[in-house]
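Could you show me just one protein sequence together with its fold in token form as a worked example?
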Amino acid sequence: MTAYGHIKVCLALAWLAVLPCRADDRLPPAVLNPSAPIGAEGQKLLVEHLDPVEVDPALTLPQLLEETLQKYPDRLINEALMQQAEAWQTRGDSWLAGSTALALDYADDRMANDNGSREASANLEFTVWLWGQRDAAQQVAYESHQSAGKQSVAVRLEVAKLLREALWDMALAENRLQQAQINLDISGQLLRKVERRVELGDLPRADLLLAESEHLQHKTLLAQAEAEVMHSRKSYASLTQTTRLPANYLEQQSTLQAIQPDHPFLAAINALVAKQHASVEWAKTTDSVNQPKVIVGAKSAREQRGADDMQSANVGVVIPFGHSTYDAPEIAAANLELSHIMAQREHLARQLEKGLHEAEHALEVNRAELVIARQLKDIAEQHLKMMQTSFEAGEINLLDLLKVQARSLEAVRNAKEQEVKLQRNIALYNQAVGVMP
């Protein structure tokens, strides 16, 4: 993959870093520790498949990002870009534009007249720079160094996006698992109450079957929630190549309210534009077929046997001209590449602006939804308590109680999930404005 191809893939994904989601500024301790191992401390998994993770209190989010970046495959491309820049620097610093050649020549008349005539010569050819060509090579080297450095920062932000998403996907999955376990416990408590009342004859056996069905449905949801947790943990481990988690990865929302010119993605593609501009100038000054050459040589000749050898030296210059006609395709190709990168820059700027707007809107909606979700949760919990009392008093049947219980559990689940989503949205807002963890 070319350097442009790599930066294009990296930067074209920038808008994904600011996709909106929803949810409060502080989370309860259980949510802050999404890595609390399920299946540990006597807690049995419904499906015996465990992808363990562990909390490392000494690990911080920036440290985790650095460790992940060191193992990220694209680091190899960054290293290659630096090597390319060094190669251009070596060429630009050279006093000669190309390789040096030594030509040796010998001729005599032994196969013809055999008069003892002979001639021997040696020529050394130096390839020299065209006017302005060395400056163009040094400019390409400089811009290559700049581009490689900016590209490294852009890859770092790309890895930060993947890391933020992996952490908060895991947090959401853990939150859903906790709620699924709570729901299963509540349905189990209700099932035991119904069993006792059926044994006492207060309720028909049909109510017991209904309670058992409801309990099994919650058990199925718990198994699905366990699977989602394991999937999210495996995705995290695959990205980071570790099972360690930071104890706290909450982020403060950035005060930036617009895409800055030094946004890592913009800085990277601007550096690439500058590098391609330098490449266009290099193409204009470079002859793809011939280069000027200076020839320095010596010759020894004798006309016949017994004659004195004649020693001479020679200096010559080869100056190509008219090369612009033949180099036009290379210049046009360099300009075409430049146009592609500039178009990509325009697309990227629009994507970043759109992503930031969506991230801002998501946070606004999220905070409003969280307020409503908390109110619904309080109302649902009060309503459920009232209906439980009515059921125990025989005023309502089991089906009515299960309907209210389902709405109450959904309200509690939604309120907790909105809290987690808000923290994820804050992290993705920071991603949108180009702030590193």
